[in-house]
Structures are given as C-alpha cells and as structure tokens.
Amino acid sequence: MKLSTYNFLTSMAIKGVKVGYPLKLTISKKDVVESEFNPVFIERLLPKLDWSAVYGAAQVAELAEDIPATQPENISDDEQLLQRLHHLLFEIDVLEGQMECPETGRIFPITDGIPNMLLNEDEV
Amino acid sequence: MHVEQKVNKAKKAEKKQRRCLAIIKADCNVAPSDAPTLNLAILNVGLSNGLTEEALLTSAAATGGQVSQVLMLPSKSYCFISCATLTDAQRVFEGMHNVATIGQLGAVAYLSYVLQLPREIEENGWQKPLPNGLLLLCNFITEAEEALLLQAIAIDDAGAACTEDTLKHRHVKHFGYEFLYGSNNVDAAQPLEQPIPAACDFLWQRLDSTKISGTFLPDQLTVNEYEPGQGIPPHVDTHSAFVDPILSLSLQADVVMDFRRGIELVHVLLPRRSLLIMSGESRYDWTHGIKPKHIDVLPTPAGSLTTQARNKRTSLTFRRLRRGACDCQYPMLCDTRQTTTPHAVTDKLATHASHLEQQNVHEVYDKIADHFSDTRHTPWPQVAEFLHSFEAYSVLLDVGCGNGKYLGCNPQLLSIGCDRSQGLLGVSNGRGQSVFRCDCLQLPVRSASIDGCISIAVIHHLASSDRRLAALLEMARVLRPGGRGLVYVWAKDQRKNDKKSSYLRQNKAVNKQHTTEQAQRQKLAQQLENMEMDQQQQLQMQVPLPVHTNRTEFQQQDVYVPWKTKDKQRTTFLRYYHVFEEQELERLVSQVEGVVLRRSYYDQGNHCVIFEKSSN
C-alpha cells in the first residue's frame, strides 16, 4: 500500500463511527520502490490530500523530520519538500502492517501490500 | 512418377499410418488388423480438419464399395466406417488408402482395417422409439394431391411473404401470417393478404377422419424449399407463438430429421408425401432440425445403414397462432416460462442477497482469478476515453477494479483500485498498482475526495435493487462536487438495432447456423445434470435461478452464468448476475440525490451511465 492511498482510507462505514479518520497506521514491513519524480503532480495533488494524515504517515514511516506538521504555504517553491513528499507518498510501499479505527479500535490488516478493509455484516 | 518417389511416398504413408494408429489406440482403444475386416479406420482426416461425412461417403462410393455405417467423432482427425461385406471393405481400402485427398487443403486419407469400432459410439439414433407425441403418417397424400398442393403454393409471390434474402440456407414463403425470423414469432395484428390456400383444406378433413388428433384448423403456413445440401438448425417452434400440434407435410423428396433432447438423439426419416404431427413432448421439449447435407444416412431393412442422395424437397409447416402466454408442462424451452422472473424469486434474492453474492460471486472470482484475469486485458475504448477526459493529477477510484486493467490506463491520474476478490487484488498489486480490499456497498474512502469513479461490470453482481442503488450512493458519496462517475452493467438485451453484441457474435456455432441457442440450452442443462452433487445441492439451497447458456440471449434478468475453468478438470462455476433492462440503470441513478445524469449509452451489450456530482 502506497501512503498516498492511505490518505483516502477511513473506517467511517463501521456502525456508530462518526469520522473514522485518520486511521492509526502501523508498519511492520515496508519496501522502497523508486519512481519518477514529477513536482507538478505532487503540487496539484496536495489540495486533494489531508495534511494531518500526510504528516501522520511520515511519522510512522520514520520520515517525520522531512515533513512539517502543518502544510507550508507556497509549497511549489520548495522543490526539496516536494521531492520528500513524492518519496513518502509514492515510493514507500507498506507490505505488512495494520490500520486501526481511531474510534472503535477495529484493526484492518495489511498483508502482502494489500489492506483488507472488508467489514463483517454485523459491523455495518 | 519415378520408382524412387513411389517408394518414398509409400514409406511416408506407412510412417504416418503407424502414428495415427497409435493415436486411435490411445484415444479409443481400437486395435488394427493385418487381415481385412469389415471395419476401417480413416486416418489423418476427420471432423477436426474439415472432413465431412459427405465427402467421405462420396469418396468411398467412387471405389465401388458400399459403406453401411459411418462414425464421425467430434474434434478428431480420424473417423471410422463399416461395410456390409469384406469385398466392400477391400474395395474401399484399395480405392482410398493413400489416394483420397479429402481432408483440408487436400490432406490424404490413410486407411487401416481395425478389429472393432470404438465403444463410445454416439448412440445410434435409429434404434430409438420416437419422442412422445410424435406421429408420422406415411402416404398421407397421393402423388396427384402433391402436385395440386405444389401448384397452390406456387402462386405469385406478391401475395405471400417471401424471405428468400434473409435466410441464406433455404427459400421460405409464408401464408396467413409472416413468421419473423428476428424474433422467432409472428405478429398477430398483421395478417397477410394471402391466407392458407383453400387447396389445403382436404388435409384437415382427412386428419379428422383418422381420429388421431382433435379438430385442428391451422391459420399459418410456412413453405420451406430445401435444395440438396440445405438444412435447418435444431430448433423448437416458439411456444408462445403457436399452439399444439404442429404439422409438417413433406413433398417431392425424403429427408432425415433429427430430434434432440439433451444427449438424446432420434433420427426420423420423413418420406415424401408423409405428414408429421408434433404434439406434446415432441412439440415442446425436443428440438428438431435437418442437417445440411447432400447425402442422408438411412437404415436398411436388414438393420444396417446405407446412404441416399437428397433431392429437392418442399415442406409445408402448418401452425395455429396461440395469441397469448404458453401454458405447457415443459419449461426447458418455453419462452413464456423462461422470460419472467417470478416475484417470489425477487423476494428470495433480496433475503439471501449477501449470502448469494458471497457464494456465487466472491468465492467464484477468487477461484477463477488467474484464468479470469487472463481473459481481461484490453481496456474498452469508451472507458479509456472517460479516463482521459480528466485533467492531469485527478484522483481516480476504480470500484471493482478486477485485475486492475484500468488503473494504469491514464498515467497522469492518481489511480486507486478496490475489489472484493483477494485473488484479483493479488494480480493488480503484483503489477505495482495501489489497491485495497472492500465491498462496494461500504467504500472505506473519505467523502467528497475523489475526482473520478468508475465501476465496470460490478453492480450487476448485486442481488437486489436496494443493494445496486446502495453501491451507486457510495460512489456518489466519495465523489467531490463536480466529480464524475462511470458505471457499466451487463444488458439483458444483447442486440442493438438488430446488431448482435460481441458477446453473441462469439457464438460461432449459432452464427454459422450449425445450431441454435435452444439446442445449446438443452446441452447445457444436460451438463448441469452431470455436475457434481455437492455443487447441485448448494444450488438447491440457494435461490433457484435459471442457468444462462453462454453466448446466447438472456432469458431472464436474474441468472447464474457458468464459468468453465481452462484446467484439466474443466470445473464449472456459477456466477450470479442481474442483467439490466433498458433504462433500468438510468432509473437507479435518478434515485441518487445530488448527482446529475450526464450521459447514458449502450456499449457492446452493456448499459452505461456517466453521472456528475452537483457542485452545491
């Protein structure tokens, strides 16, 4: 699972859960897959991402120093930060780990790089 | 030819013959005989490489040897014949071995005497009782009456409906009502100017006097003219179109008609001037057809088989319009019975929806994932076009992404996929695509975060209208204002403007008029009967739905569609589908608040909609 995907995931479908975001991420095994850096792509994508989950992911991925806690303005001038965001969002591949619902503690396992967000019928 | 070349040719034949004999020994445990026998294996040529029974018989006849039985084996490059006497067998052997070029591209036949014919002979359709309800009255009319009838139907074509152009294989003329081959039905509101000729009236009086069937007055006549080599694929006369019985009068020549039900096969010789009465089981539950051949194989009084060249034959089929639903006891081929989903079934589907989807969708896709994925590689052009209609850097969610074939389609998008099937997710993840597992009824995705959403061939697997709507509501929820969604579902109607979808076009046997959808349905029913018991029981426990015959028109909206694996076991899995009627998808979208239908269209057997989330 790429951390860009993580940014969109929520547990809000669980019965009684109000926000379900961001999910508490744990990484037990990850891979780094290099991909072509496109600063414009990152810049245009940022408004569609939730910064708190971007920052949260950076902490879990041990890249917290690279990413500021709040989204800086005029990020397009900061090529270095865009490069780091690219690395964080598109080059880190979570192979094993889990995500936890912040409200219920329900665990969503990540196995072989695929998060299992499937809920049982009695959970929805 | 030089001596050396002759030796070479003989050597080559011998080598080839040995190889072929090894094959038939392995395939059907048939051993060769050095001494002449009554049975001959025809090697190197067979049904699989274009040999027809007719070409074989013609070639054998040219040797002066009389053939009494032919055994063509499906998809084999060999076949067998039997002769009544050793002299006949020797004549055929000497005249054909390494001489007859009767296969595709002039492939030569090698012959060998064999000790016996293979055991798995297709059952002999001649030693069977006639199907129930079938009656053949020989010499029903005299030659003089035959001549009068031919004269009566040979009227100016302007009065009758002629469909010579649309039917490649025979000349057809209608009286009373036109039989419409597109719908396999008649339009009761559109009688033809020309009713059944009065010259036919004596037939009903004669039929009455036989006391065989009650008073029967037909109001529709179809005249078929068959030249030698022409036939009619196996079919049942549409139940809802005509009542019981159906009469067929043979004029000018004999022909062999084949009746089939599942694997049951009965040949019936229809002699010239005979009347065939199809009623009950034979009218409703069996298909009948005539093989397109120049030569018929017939039984001899002695009990063996012989051949007879066909001549031009005219058949008069007399029927009476039903004007309403069919009430027969034979559901298998009944269009009335097959085209309506009873309310009870819809209710049962809704009750068992999630269990049914689990067993007949999710589990099946997991089992067939690899094979399924191998068959899904080319993106559909109109889906690709939709994906390219987004500005660069948009976020795409593919709901039910399968093997992920659309995720890399537009590399300028951030594409994320999800699916229920772990097996298919494994395929797309292995290709480096970003995917997660979920149900399309609960997307674990932030609201209003996605620019574009596609769901291709997914929600037709949901077993109730509420659930299909719920899936659309979820897509609408995750779209941001101004975001657009594209949904494809399978259409019940696989034709548009009388053009078949590619799904139907791939039914080669039907398209080449070698068979009919009805015959394929019967065959499938037979296969299902032979399915393993546990799978049978599972079906019984589940909602009992009809099993769709692949590459044929859908009969009902809620069906099981078989998937046959390509491995050795050839296991059949049944996937649940709800195929959509026209406008059904649009109606569903109209129930989703906050989205506007932008476009709806029909694409190769699918109904498709593009909707947009409103901006406020």
Automatic annotation (TrEMBL), chain A:
GO cellular component, one term: perinuclear region of cytoplasm
Domain of life: Eukaryota
GO biological process, one term: rRNA (guanine-N7)-methylation
GO-annotated molecular function: protein heterodimerization activity
Subcellular location: Cytoplasm, Perinuclear region; Nucleus, Nucleoplasm
Keywords: Cytoplasm, Nucleus
InterPro entries given in the database record: Trm112 (IPR039127), Trm112-like (IPR005651)
Family: Belongs to the TRM112 family.
PANTHER family named among the record's database cross-references: MULTIFUNCTIONAL METHYLTRANSFERASE SUBUNIT TRM112-LIKE PROTEIN, UPF0315 PROTEIN-RELATED
Descriptive protein name: Multifunctional methyltransferase subunit TRM112-like protein
UniProt organism field: Drosophila grimshawi (Hawaiian fruit fly)
Automatic annotation (TrEMBL), chain B:
InterPro entries on file: AlkB-like, AlkB-like_sf, AlkB_tRNA_MeTrf/Diox, Methyltransf_11, Nucleotide-bd_a/b_plait_sf, Oxoglu/Fe-dep_dioxygenase_dom, RBD_domain_sf, SAM-dependent_MTases_sf
Biological process, per Gene Ontology: tRNA methylation; tRNA wobble uridine modification
Transmembrane annotation, as ranges: none
Top-level taxon of the source organism: Eukaryota
CDD domains found in the cross-reference section: AdoMet_MTases
Residue ranges occupied by any Fe2OG dioxygenase domain in the UniProt entry: 217-322
Recorded coiled-coil stretches: 514-541
Cofactor(s) named in the record: Fe(2+)
Alphabetical keyword list: Coiled coil, Methyltransferase, RNA-binding, Transferase, Zinc
GO cellular component: cytoplasm; nucleus
GO molecular function, one term: S-adenosylmethionine-dependent methyltransferase activity
Entry annotated with the keyword Transferase: yes
Pfam families hit by this protein: 2OG-FeII_Oxy_2 (PF13532), Methyltransf_11 (PF08241)
Keyword Transferase: yes
SUPFAM superfamilies according to UniProt: Clavaminate synthase-like (SSF51197), RNA-binding domain, RBD (SSF54928), S-adenosyl-L-methionine-dependent methyltransferases (SSF53335)
PANTHER family given in the database record: ALKYLATED DNA REPAIR PROTEIN ALKB HOMOLOG 8
Protein name: GH20337
Organism: Drosophila grimshawi
Lineage: Eukaryota, Metazoa, Ecdysozoa, Arthropoda, Hexapoda
